[in-house]
User: Fold this.
Amino acid sequence: MQTLLEQSDPQISDIIDRERIRQNTTIQLIASENFTSPAVIAAQGSVLTNKYSEGYPHKRYYGGNVVVDEAEDLAIERACNLFGAEHANVQPHSGANANMGVFLALLHPGDKVLGMRLDQGGHLTHGSPVNFSGRFYDFCAYGVHESTEQLDYEEIANLAREERPKMIIAGATAYPRAIDFAAFREIADEVGALLMVDAAHIAGLIAGGAHANPVPFADIVTFTTHKTLRGPRGGAILCRDQYATAIDKAVFPGMQGGPLMHVVAAKAVAFHEASRPEFRDYAASVVLNASALANALAGHGFRIISGGTDNHLMLVDLRPFEVTGKVAQECLDVAGITTNKNAIPNDPAKPFVTSGLRLGTAAVTTAGMGEEQMVEIAELIATALRSADDSSVLAAVREQAGALCSKFTPYP
Ligand code: DSN
Assistant:
């Protein structure tokens, strides 16, 4: 039977179908992606998309918000309970918007901020010169230690003493190790800085008890809801009560208009799912799978940055295989394995080429794969990259990837 979408817009319907098939039949290893639940998708694809709700629950600018208020109340309450936070703002449309909201609330243009270098694992909004953050604020940056490829808290402390930033940002998009939030707090206290943690990547691990929780240490925590947390695309901010009014005012009316109430409701669903005991098992499995994949790749001769992983992702140095990140990403795409090229610390290659790949296990774990499958995936990656220019090998790997996915289909 044809769906309503098929009838009214066969072109878009076909695109959605083909994307579902792509997600079902190829291996998804992008560290910032996941397969959200049918319940989250149902909330996100609901009539709540129709409602304008500028303001906050019970203080809106338009009428007719009595029902959607309940959705936002629930999302706020569930976010606070999940992370042990005093206040939550669930309206940011994305992680970048969440970060922008924090800067708008707590900084003045030109204020000094210490964040992580983009080319060593930080995020665009942590001060990249091509981003609003780098244009409006005076960012200085820490990286990873040259030999350990891990954060060096003594070095960060020295930099903070020299630079005296108003805010320090902890958090990354491509850092495979646990982050010591207590150490960051100590540094921030010593120099009188605010501490913001960008927990976008690890939010699900925190919710599931597989990574330390930054909330007790940070003034502000931002996160996205769609990565390890497995919710809808979006952002959120957690903060201490003393910053609640400033944060809420910065998000609306400071930088956003009407919240996306269908997404807010879907965030509430995701927070509920992440509070269940089985989510703890999920988070633990994500980390075990990442370790298994990293070990198996190392066994094939890849160099794993920092020697391993403590979280859901790893950075792979491809130079032993004499292939760039760009070529590897393209050839793995052909071979049915979705990844992204990524700079490795002190990468000699340009950012659009890179010497590395970033791989994450959040999505494959949601699909039900375990450590045995991680060994298989490592083998497929090694086979493909050893024969990056042999289309028959890539086709054979694609077939094996498809066979593996047929046993672990996220959207049957
Ligand atoms: N694009 C996200 C990631 O892949 O980590 C960060 O915004």
Observations:
- Residues 32, 95, 123, 173 surround D-serine (CB under 6 Å).
